[in-house]
Structure formats: structure tokens, C-alpha cells
Amino acid sequence: MIYRIYSSLPSFKQLEFGPGLNVLLADKESKAKSKQTRNGAGKSSTLEIIHFVCAGECDKDSIFKMPELAGHRFGLEFDLGGQVVRAERSGSEPGDVIVNASSFGDWPVKPELSEEKQEWILNVKSWDRVLGHFMFGLDASAKRGQSAYAPTFRSLFPYFVRREPGGFSKPYLYFLQSKPVQWQVAVSFLLGLDWTIPQDWQKVRDSEDSIKKLKAAVGEGDLAEVVGKKAELRAEIASKSKELAKFQSRISGFQVLPDFREYEQRAGELTNELSRLSADNTLDDELILDLETAIEDEHTPQISELEKVYKEAGLVLPGVALRAFNDVKLFHESVVLNRKSYLNSEIQAARQRIASRERRKASLDAERQACFGLLSSHGALEQFLKLQAEYGKKVAELDLLQRRFAAAEQIEEGLAKAKIRRQQLLLRLQQDYSEQADQLNKVIVTFQEISSELYEKPALFTPSETTNGPTFNVEVQGERSPGIGHMQIYTFDMMLCQLAASKGLGPGFLVHDSHLFDPVDSRQVGAALALGQRFAAAYNVQYIVTFNSDKEIEYPRGFDVTPFHVPTKLTDATLTGGLFGIRFA
């Protein structure tokens, strides 16, 4: 139980509690201004202090970081591990908890004595472990420390000190943004069920999240589209691999010729020269043919013809002295002979030119073949670089295809495994619920009995097995209202506290903020307080609840709440009337 809540803040109003039911009241002055709300009294801050001292978070927005409070300690005196313990913590040094107890012998982590302050100090992480050890026996399971999803003190404690925001939405939630694994593991543990099953369910979700991230990395559309292309990808990979092998062979056999362009230009020049020589030879061939024809046409005139010409000349040219006939004959024969000799010399010259060109052509052709040989077996540097670039592009294309194929394969395999794993976990969960049938029946009956104290038609607590893990729903008969929903949270918490107390676990107290009862009918509020008093007495636990003094409550006949009022009364009527004794922004 909690004995007192205190602070080093001089204006702080110390709160003292007794066993059983404790009702902390806050007055609201009827003439109070609108800004002087009931929240200014500090009822909800009482729960914040309990969480803060019990290893709760202290972020930059925490009230304990505010300048007016940061330099002061806030403390809790309560039962822990069979002894009365005092624990204090401040917003200026939120990482340390000052503890005071008669003995630390059985603590899983021993505090260290500060020589400077002469106080026993634990860091918040170690304090969390101490609280989990004594309140929930968390060190009892060796498996618990091997997973990030195992139950922790901070995942269990909020069900016993329920607060806003988010604590009043669903019975199994203590904050709205909680992941399924957080409440599935916590509630399963508190109900005495196998909490490792929902823990393993989260591992399946993590695997599925990895698949989603992989799908996003692949850059495709729907997951099914990627998987469906697996066969096409395999064919593309085979084709690209073959094409790449050919390119690789070309690259490995490629030889760079430094003067490639010069050889290429020389080969062109040689080709042009050979063409010119061939053309000149053709002309000389034609000339030889013409000369040979001319020689065949050249011959010595017949004697009869020459005589005829000679006689005609004498008649035509009388009185002219003519050479002797023999002299003329000899002259004509000399002319023909000279003509043939000239033509033969021209033919011989043409043939010599052709022969010279043929020799030149043979030399040039040999040089050209050498150039072509180099050009065919070597390549220019820019060609080689271009070939390399093309090869690199094809390597990248193949690599992308292979990664997409591996991703598709992994996605397909991962989806299949996840589906199988979910079915296996569902079978485990069903088997656990079957084996724990007596425990489940006890839980269901306990919830129904508590609910029947509040309503004629009690709500039903229905733990269920699904392919996404266990669910813990509440079925309400008849019309559902916000007030009824809040009372199911009250019933759920009472059930958990009763189950824990019956096993010697839990913090030994249950704390509810007044906001839980805001939408609840006055008669049900009175019944809840009377039930809380009987419950606390029956299970030797403490039930602390905060209320506004003007809250309309209809108590059951014979029940008097006055003896259970906490001596300290808070008010928002004055600046000093609240829990902290000061007002701050």
C-alpha cells in the first residue's frame, strides 16, 4: 500500500493514505473563475507523481521539468518486497532515484551510497528492475530478458494506476498509440496466460514489415505484382546473362591500337593509290591494243600500185624531173618500217609502265593488308571505352534483375512463411486457451461478478484467439454509453488487481483518476465506490480514487464514504489550495 506522497517543495500538500478505500477530494469554489478549473487542484497530478517516482518517463514536456518544480524532489512511501520503502526523484536529475529501506539484501540490484549526499541511489533502469521484481516477479522467467517484447514493469504498472490520456478508451489499452504486442503481452501475463505467444506474433509482424520495406525498395507497385513477375525475371536474367557473356568475350579479346586513326587513314590512302594505278593500267592496256591494231594495218605498198602512181605523176606533171622508180620504192619501204618500229616502241613502253605499276600495286597491297590486319585485330581507345561503358550498363541491368528476382523470391518465401507462422501461432494460442480453461473461466467469471455489482445485465469479458493474436474484448448487453464503457474499464482493472492479489503479485494498490467516472451515472459511481471498499478489504489491497467534492454520487443504502476520505483536501479556489500549493503555466 501507499502510505504517503510527499515533496521537498515547501508548499506541497502531503497526502497520507490508509489501508482499503481512500477517497481524495478536491473542492471547487462556486465563484471560481473559468480558468481556475478542478484540474488546478492537483487530483490528476497525484497519479502523475506516482508514475514519476515509479520509473515513469520524464520528457521535456513533463510537469516535473517545469522551473517551479524541477529543483524539488517528489517522494512515495509504500510497501515493497515485505518492507516500507521511500523513493524520491526530481525533474532536475530524473535519471537517479533516491531510495531508503531497512535492507537491500534481496534486491536484484543494490543501490550505491553517494558519498557526497550520503544517500542510497539507483538509476531509473535499475529501479524499474527492482519494482518489476517485487511487484510482478519479472526476474522469475529466464526467457523474459531475451526479447524486446517481454513484459516489463512499465508495461504492467499502468493497469494499476490508470490515467489520461488514452487510459480511458479501451479496457486493455493504457495509451492510444500502443502496439498490439504491448497490450497483448501485458494482459496475457496479468491473466496468467502464455505471453510468449503474442510475443512471437510480433516477430511475425516484424517480418511482414521487413517484406513491406523490401517491396518499397524494389520500387514496384503492389506486392503481388512483384511476386507475379518472378518467372519473367528468371527468363530476363538468362537472356541478359548470355548477352553479357558475349560482351565479356569481346572485352577480353579487344586490343587497343594507339595509332588506330593513322592506320585507318593510311589504309584509305593505299586503297585510293591502288585504284589510281589500276585505272592507269587499264588505259595503257587499251593503248597497247590500239597500237597493235595500227601495226597490223601498216604494210609496204604493192609494186603495181606504186608504178601506177608513178606513171600518173609523169602525165600530170610533165617536164618535172622524177626520181628513179627504185628510189621511190625504197623510200616507201623505209617509211613503213619506221612506222612499225615506232609503234612497237610505244607498246613496249606501255607494257613497262604496266609492269612497274603492278610491282607498285603489290607493294601497296601488302602494306594495306598489314593495316587491315591491325585494324581488324585491334581497336581505337574510344571504341574500347565505349565498349566498356556498354558492358558496365549491361552488368548493372543484370544486377538489377538479379536483385529484383532475389527480392521477389524473398517476398514470396517470406509471405508464405508468415502465413504458416500465423497459423502455427493460432494453434498454439488455441492450445494454450484449452490448457488454461480453468484459469480463463475464473477470469471470465470474476469479470462478470464485478460487472453484475454495477448493472443488472453484466458485461461479458471475451478473450478470443485470432490470426493476429489474442483479443480481450468486452461485450455489453443493451445500449452502450460512454459511462458504461468507462465502468467496463473499472471492472477490468478490478479483475486484474484481484487476480494479481490472489497470486501474491501486483503493487498492492489500485488508483483511479476522477475522469474515469465523469460520464458515469451517479448510482453506478456510488456502487463502484462501495464495491471498491469491499474489494480492498477482501483482498487486502488499497484502492485510491480521486473525486471532485461536487460530484453527484448516489451511494448504496448503508454505505458511508466519509470514513474513507483522505485527511488532506485540495481546492482550486485559491492559488495555494492545490496539491503543489502554487500555480504554474
What report would you give on this structure?
The protein folds into 2 domains: 328 residues, P-loop containing nucleotide triphosphate hydrolases (Rossmann fold); 114 residues. The two termini are 32 Å apart. The protein is of the alpha/beta class and 585 residues long. It is built from 15 helices and 14 strands. The protein is rod-shaped. α9 runs antiparallel to α11. About 3% of the residues have low confidence. The strands form 3 sheets. It has a 7-stranded antiparallel β-sheet, with helices on one face. Pfam families: CTD10, DUF2326. Keywords: Coiled coil. InterPro entries: ABC-3C_CTD10 (IPR046919), DUF2326 (IPR018760), P-loop_NTPase (IPR027417).
Short summary:
Residues 223-280 form a coiled coil. By secondary structure, the protein is α/β, with parallel strands linked by helices.
Head-to-tail CA distance between termini? 32 Å
Domain module tally? 2
Major sheet: 7 strands, antiparallel
The CATH topology of the largest domain is Rossmann fold
Q: How many strands?
A: 14
**Radius of gyration over C-alpha positions, nearest whole angstrom:** 55 Å
Pfam family, one: DUF2326
Domain ABC-three component systems C-terminal: 288-412
Domain DUF2326: 450-584
Keywords: Coiled coil
